[in-house]
Design brief:
With about 290 residues, this protein is mainly alpha-helical. The chain contains 12 helices and 5 strands. The protein has helices at about 1-15, 25-30, 35-60, 70-80, 90-100, 110-120, 125-145, 150-160, 175-190, 225-235, 255-270, 275-285; strands spanning about 205-210, 215, 220, 245, 250-255. The strands form 2 sheets. It has a 3-stranded mixed β-sheet. A two-stranded antiparallel sheet has the order 2-3. It is globular and about 55 Å long.
């Protein structure tokens, strides 16, 4: 379940530099408490390690714990190059210092964390900072030219690739559901500390719902492992309510529905050869 929550958080938070003005990562970082900063870095480290091990296992068929395998040294080297390596306390101190420089304010958290790690290793970071600053601005300018209006790219991907056709019948039209995810659920979370300052919900009750099971004693508990596996690996949508449901009084987002749908969306998006070729061409600039 922890993997599921982490992925959903990544999906919701990804793209925060792509709407409106360039996102001020420094301002957000400086507003966080030590506990939040520590939690972010722990999640980032876990994600790097878990993602690397899964890619290794999937594409080599080799158990990552088999230190005698031919691929293990390659994996070990890759981990050394990508993992954060140092304790969170040391990283937080350096990231705090980096974000004191206003020219670094648009550099995403994960890139700043890697640069902080390199500084702790004694490496020169000037070139890395220069490239990160340049990429942050150029990426923002490129997406602004492509979107036409704030959020168009975000909702466009949801409309085109999210598996709405597998949702239960009678759901919101995909355009309305995508806009609800963007305006009602995502933006207040990532930009406004959970407040709907632009009043997209227009007085509605907004809820984020989780599936749950009950014990014989009536106490709520998490999902069985089999159910979690069906969310992570299944090709058939598990039996559950729609990702977004709405009534005149409220809008509800189902966490497990969003998780499964985003996973399928990413699979469909990365299978779009035309889209991927365009992305390769763009990213080759950096």
């Amino acid at each position: 379940m922890k993997k599921m929550i982490c992925l959903i958080a990544v999906v919701l938070l990804s793209g925060i530099a792509y709407a409106g003005d360039p996102y001020n990562y420094a301002g957000q970082w400086n507003s966080w408490s030590y506990v939040t900063k520590n939690a972010y870095l722990t999640g980032l480290s876990d994600g790097i390690i878990y993602g690397g091990s899964q890619i290794h296992s999937k594409y080599t068929g080799t158990n990552v714990l088999d230190t005698k395998s031919k691929e293990f040294k390659k994996l070990e080297k890759a981990f050394q190059e990508t993992t954060l390596y140092f304790e969170n306390d040391a990283l937080i101190k350096v990231i705090d210092e980096l974000y004191e420089d206003s020219s670094n304010c648009f550099i995403p958290f994960h890139e700043t964390a890697v640069i902080a790690r390199d500084k702790l290793k004694g490496k020169s970071i000037e070139e890395s900072l220069r490239k990160a600053r340049q990429m942050a601005i150029e990426l923002h300018e490129f997406i602004e030219k492509q979107t036409g209006h704030v959020g168009a790219r975000f909702t466009g991907v949801l409309e085109d690739y999210y598996p709405w056709y597998l949702e239960p019948s009678g759901i919101l039209p995909k355009k309305d559901a995508a806009e609800a995810i963007y305006n009602v659920f995502r933006n207040p979370l990532t930009h406004d500390l959970g407040l709907d300052v632009k009043q997209h919900s227009k007085g509605l009750v907004v809820k984020v719902k989780r599936l749950k099971t009950s014990t014989r004693g009536g106490k709520d508990r998490g999902l069985p492992e089999k159910t979690i596996e069906s969310l992570e690996d299944g090709t058939t949508r598990p039996k559950m309510s729609a990702t977004v449901t709405a009534t005149p009084q409220k809008k509800v987002l189902l966490v497990e529905g969003l998780y499964w749908g985003i996973r399928v969306m990413i699979e469909r998006l990365t299978a779009d050869k035309v889209r991927m070729l365009a992305a390769d061409k763009f990213l080759a600039k950096f």
